[in-house]
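Hey all, quick one. A colleague (J.T.) asked me to put the glutathione job into the tracker so the inputs and the structure tokens live in one place instead of scattered across chat threads. No bug as far as I know, just bookkeeping. Sequence used:
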Amino acid sequence: MRLYDYAPSCNCYKVRLLLAHLQLAYERVPVDIFDGGTLTDEYARLNPSRTTPVLETDDGRFLPESNAILVYLAQGTEYLPEDPFERAEVVRWLVYEQTDVIPTVGGLRFRLLVGRLEPSDPTAIRRKEGGEEVLRLLDDHLAERDFFVSGRYTIADVAIYGYTHLAHEAGIDVEPCANLRRWFKRVEQQPGYAEDVEPYGANAAPGAGRSLYD
Ligand SMILES: N[C@@H](CCC(=O)N[C@@H](CS)C(=O)NCC(=O)O)C(=O)O
């Protein structure tokens, strides 16, 4: 297996985290998304959306979309429930992560860290308020649960952990979210857990590189 991967991206980190839990061997193919790495014709053949991560399976097929990759890798393992309702609940959180967590927490973190937004920009303030609302909802869900679905660690937790554990880098205070903070610790105690998100390179600053964002 190969993972086309940008080390500072938490979408890529989510996949690396599950691979670490599963102790699966894979080749990491670094893609510098701010050096035009996703803008080539060759990359478009792997993923017409030109995003990372992309998983190349052992039989040579290409799967983009971080949460689709999580589902693929988790089939038949303890990280994806068999029960149809529980499985659908996992999908519910995978969708929520993409539609609500990423645009707020993830999008704001990236833009603040690389200087594409200032905390006082109206867009940053809107994203921050959205992020705080998302974290409150997650915190409420965890008030009487150890994990997001069926009382055990699944890919729903892997996906949501990806960006939320770095919410402070988006200027969002997680101090009021005691349930969420306790859940971070539970995630961090899972077998094989690893955290290897790297800082963005200088070429991620506006106008400094070539990417989908420029
Ligand atoms: N929904 C996609 C989003 C992936 C995404 O936006 N990836 C970013 C990094 S976090 C990327 O590779 N952007 C490519 C570029 O800027 O060229 C997923 O979950 O995989």
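Adding what we noticed when we looked at it: Residues 6, 9, 11, 33, 38, 50-53, 65-67, 98, 211-213 surround glutathione (CB under 6 Å). The longest strand covers residues 2-5.
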